[in-house]
Each structure stands twice: as C-alpha cells, then as structure tokens.
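User: I'll paste a sequence; please echo it back and then give the predicted structure.

Assistant: Echoing your sequence first, then the prediction.
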Amino acid sequence: MDFLLKFKAGAKALHKKAKNQFKKPNKAVLKKLNKEGPTLHDQVFENINCLDCAGCCKGIPPIVTHQDSKRIAKHLSISQNEFLDKYTKEDEDLDRVMGKSPCYFLNKDNTCQIYDVRPKACRAYPHTNAQKFSEHLNIHIKNIQHCPAVFQIFERLLK
C-alpha cells in the first residue's frame, strides 16, 4: 500500500511534469513511448492490485457503448432503456457514460457488482498496454492523477 501514499503525494506534480515534457513530442519520442509503454504496463501491473485503489471507479465515469448497455441490462434483468435511464447520462462530449462517481456498481471493498459484464472502457482501463501508447498520450497524462499504475509508468518514462 506504500505505492498509494506515494501516488497521492506525487500525482499532481508528475502530471504537470508529464504535461510539459510531452507537450509536442517528436517522432522519436512517440516511437519510444510506443515501444516502452506496453512493457512498462506489464512490469507495473505485476505489483499492483487494482482493488487496493479503484480510483478509476471512484473518479472517472466510463463510456457505456450500446453493446455494453445491452449486456449489463440483460445481466440486471431490466430493459436496456431502463438501464440507460437509471444508470447513465450524456457527458459534455455527448458520450453515454455511467451516471455518477463513484460508480453505482462499486462495492465497499472496491470490487465490482457487474465485473463479468462491465463496460468495455472498464475492461481496457488504463489503456496503457496498447501498442499505440502515444495515440492515447493525453488521456494517459490525465490518468496520472487517477491511477497509481499510470503514475508509476510515467515515473519510469520520465527518468
């Protein structure tokens, strides 16, 4: 749990540093990020248990696709429209997202009530294992403040 204390203490400063460092990355930097990002993701996640934090579930409403809403509604034995009306909202980007943070389906022990049918965005979070790491660079930089794993990845990238 020491990583959580370090994360909470340093996330804001690291976010600022990464934002400045990667403001206008050149092709060589982007290539390096694409090579190192997924490798660092694997290394970091060897030592992190997401249930210790659940910052994503507490602070970032995930996008809910049409397929997600169908799958979750079926799991909850309600209609898709009922699910959408009760549990989602449209955000400022006009995306359909979970309607509140912390997530409706987050348990007190940081487990998920709908884990087996959770949205695609939740399954893929924090998206740092993608081969095109650099394509999501701005999102990764924002997530430094929400996810200890992303924080650790950027700590290593910025050494």
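The two ends are 23 Å apart (CA to CA). The mean pLDDT is 95.
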